[in-house]
Amino acid sequence: MTSRPEQDIKSEIGGWPFVRIQTNLVNDDIRAYVRARIREGNDFKRLQSKPKVQDEIERRLMEKVDGM
């Protein structure tokens, strides 16, 4: 199970063992996935000739990712 470090969640599962995931490493994986989907995915074919739009989509998605 994964979760954000919110107090109500911590209080419910406080006694469970946990592993802290390094957000920056997860974000790198998410960025690679998002980039591949935007640039190579069938759902975004119409954007293949618009790298600035692709970059903007990637940037906005990554602004809020925070490891999730």
Write up this protein.
It is a single chain. The protein is an all-alpha fold. The chain has a domain at 19-63. The chain contains 3 helices and no strands. It starts with 6 loop residues before the first helix and ends in a 5-residue tail after the last helix. The model has no long low-confidence stretch (mean pLDDT 86).
Name the structural class. Answer: mainly alpha
Low-confidence spans: none
Output the helix-strand order. Answer: HHH
Structure summary, number of beta strands? 0
The shape is: elongated
Number of helices: 3
- Strand proportion, as a percent range, falls in under 5%
Q: Taking all residues together, what is the mean pLDDT?
A: 86
Q: Tell me the span between the first and last alpha carbons.
A: 12 Å
Radius of gyration: 16 Å
Helix content: 55-70%
Main β-sheet, in a few words?
none
Keywords:
single chain; 68 residues; mainly alpha; 3 helices
